[in-house]
Amino acid sequence: xxxxxxxxxxxxxxxxxxxxxxxxxxxxxxxxxxxxxxxxxxxxxxxxxxxxxxxxxxxxxxxxxxxxxxxxxxxxxxxxxxxxxxxxxxxxxxxxxxxxxxxxxxxxxxxxxxxxxxxxxxxxxxxxxxxxxxxxxxxxxxxxxxxxxxxxxxxxxxxxxxxxxxxxxxxxxxxxxxxxxxxxxxxxxxxxxxxxxxxxxxxxxxxxxxxxxxxxxxxxxxxxxxxxxxxxxxxxxxxxxxxxxxxxxxxxxxxxxxxxxxxxxxxxxxxxxxxxxxxxxxxxxxxxxxxxxxxxxxxxxxxxxxxxxxxxxxxxxxxxxxxxxxxxxxxxxxxxxxxxxxxxxxxxxxxxxxxxxxxxxxxxxxxxxxxxxxxxxxxxxxxxxxxxxxxxxxxxxxxxxxxxxxxxxxxxxxxxxxxxxxxxxxxxxxxxxxxxxxxxxxxxxxxxxxxxx
Amino acid sequence: xxxxxxxxxxxxxxxxxxxxxxxxxxxxxxxxxxxxxxxxxxxxxxxxxxxxxxxxxxxxxxxxxxxxxxxxxxxxxxxxxxxxxxxxxxxxxxxxxxxxxxxxxxxxxxxxxxxxxxxxxxxxxxxxxxxxxxxxxxxxxxxxxxxxxxxxxxxxxxxxxxxxx
Lengths: 453, 165
Prior knowledge:
The complex is a heterodimer. By secondary structure, chain A is α+β, with helices and mostly antiparallel strands. Helices cover 36% and strands 28% of the residues of chain A. Chain A has 13 helices and 21 strands. A 7-stranded antiparallel β-sheet of chain A has the order 7-6-5-11-10-9-8, with helices on both faces. Chain A has a 7-stranded antiparallel β-sheet with strand order 14-13-12-18-17-16-15. In chain A, helix 7 crosses helix 9 and helix 8 (181-200) runs antiparallel to helix 9. The longest helix of chain A has 24 residues, at 204-227. Chain A is globular. The relative contact order of chain A is 0.10. Chain B is α+β, with helices and mostly antiparallel strands. Chain B has a 3-stranded antiparallel β-sheet. Chain B has a 3-stranded antiparallel β-sheet with strand order 4-5-6. Classes of the chains: A alpha+beta, B alpha+beta. The interface between A and B is medium-sized, with 40 and 29 residues. Strand 19 (374-379) of chain A pairs antiparallel with strand 3 (97-103) of chain B.
């Protein structure tokens, strides 16, 4: 292991098979289309093999070029990935601003022993750099090295040891997905379709309803696929999450990168006592378009309250939220939120702000004062009549919203001022970005320490 | 002072107000829009010969203009901002009131924009961005030199107090 780490190079290329892996899906799709359309292609006659070979050669040259022009370099505290044949593009990530590092293995890459390294900075898609693909061992060694540098240690520091925190059985993930609201809707939909098909004694309706069925089953499958074999481990360089059935993902979230967390309990999960833990992590922001970002933001897909508490204790070190005085809203709030007003709770202590709400799905969100971006008080027309106000505590983009609705207006303003003050005090006392270096002078720049210590 | 006024009161002595040019610009837009509609009504009336319709349109448009001017006036008066040692407070809105507190240390970007109409009336908008999309703090209707001063001051304070995420 140590030997691997020492060999981490500061410059490199991705694995030569990368274009093949990237093109994998497209190639499979094209071959499929070609086979289906073979009959129609017969008119090309004997030119067909020639066209096929020509296209393949063209694709091979293009992918070789794109691979040959892609390099990564680690220098001056940056990771730079440059790519592009005609238009050169250089993407740059500051190592001390890394919010998370993922090693992702899509199914095809996994079969070839390759992995993609994803580096996330704050700022969503713009602040994200991927190095695809590397040999798995190389990707892991590079990750360890980057994490060591991000922590303010030498880049040769071997990978930190880890301590398992929680393991989720795949059965529980499947059970959790099947007991969700979406799954229940899917089952109702399928039952209706089957009933209609049975009553009309024809299978025509099944064909019509199939896309709808797929539409509800696909997200379920996505959740199960992404969360299968979920393990959470703790290490000095951060929280390590590993999960995935076909596409596996190993996420490392360095200490202090979790902006806010929430514990969610859908209605049906109350019976087995399950909960889900999700977090806002700055680097994972704005990912809705690709790969469903909520899967990345999940710290525990399904587990007991005790497991959730272990993870909360890890992401909110030294913070006891059990002593937070959770206060209800005045009963006149029922005129604005007739169904939910009695579930609204908010409270804070010296370190965190906590909100709670939800009739069917109960949600508890926790945010450290020092992570607050801004705070706002809003009052709508109905709230003005009822002398109520809503307090918004802004976090970076993610599944967790920290909102305390319908507080008494005087209390809401008091909370606003209180949170602004506490956020300021929290920022002043916050731990350094580089969590291992106690030396504040090291905050100004990252250097490679080239000589052997 | 009512409870609601207290909740939106400035933490300093007074809110800094925005330029009256904001009100002038919006009034001009409202009056201009109504005048244009009235012109259309006049042309239609001349073409069809139904002058009663033109009179009704004039009445309706006059009423709409006076309502719009009232709304514009209240909206103008609702804008306010306050610079404190560590954060900036911005408030605005009549029907939906909002007060946002943005710490200087959290500002990632401050931008100043002025459209062609705004430039004509000599005002600009300052917008503050943090790492959260929810912040949405902007101050409309600032005189250009005040906007520039605010931008420079915010940028300097943001630099000095910048905190890691």
